[in-house]
Amino acid sequence: MPTLLALDASSTACSCALIRNRQIVQRFEIAPREHTRLLLPMIDEVLAEAGVTLTQLDAVAYGHGPGSFTGLRIAAGIAQGLAYGADLPLIGVSTLEALALAAHRKWHARHVIAALDARMDEIYVGAYHCHDGALTVALDPRVVPPSRLRLPATDRDIEWLGIGSGWQLLSNIPVDVQAALPQTLPDELPAAEDLVRLAATSWERGARGSAPHEVIPVYLRDEVAWRKA
Question: For 119, which of 13, 32, 78, 96 is 20 to 30 Å away at the CA?
Fold first, then answer.
């Protein structure tokens, strides 16, 4: 089992987690616009609690997106700095997959649609089948207006659990999609605890990450999202 550090700043939450011998130490705080101030102290606290130094890590993982453009850049920048300094590979992890894993881990959901508010009247969304901690992609991550969201063509008879801030826009989503969602969890945010689990699974399957200079955030669109006050 690898020793991995994961960090995430893709939403209003800021989080950090470390896995070692299948045990997880983590910090999580909802703190809009405070990611830069909080993330480095969180990393120090998690390393100290686990009794691990940076040089004892196998890799650094981070939430590569989708999510807040600024937050993704903060997490990527800090992860790259740590990786360069300790000569470690980086593992980018999908924030939508992290949400799906959280739904599976905490609520035993088998079929999950993860959605994040992308601003500009759009959502980031992906669908996953979950079994024994493993995820299979049913709908590739994309950015769409809520009104254009469609269920995976082969899974129209499945009941899905919706998770993530994108479901705050549930009233704008087509009626047939709403009918397939008996439960939504719009207040759930991506967390490093789930990122580090996914990174560890990827590592155990043979993925060893990438060099720091090769890793970039996944925005799903090129426009910078903004909203008028």
Answer: 78
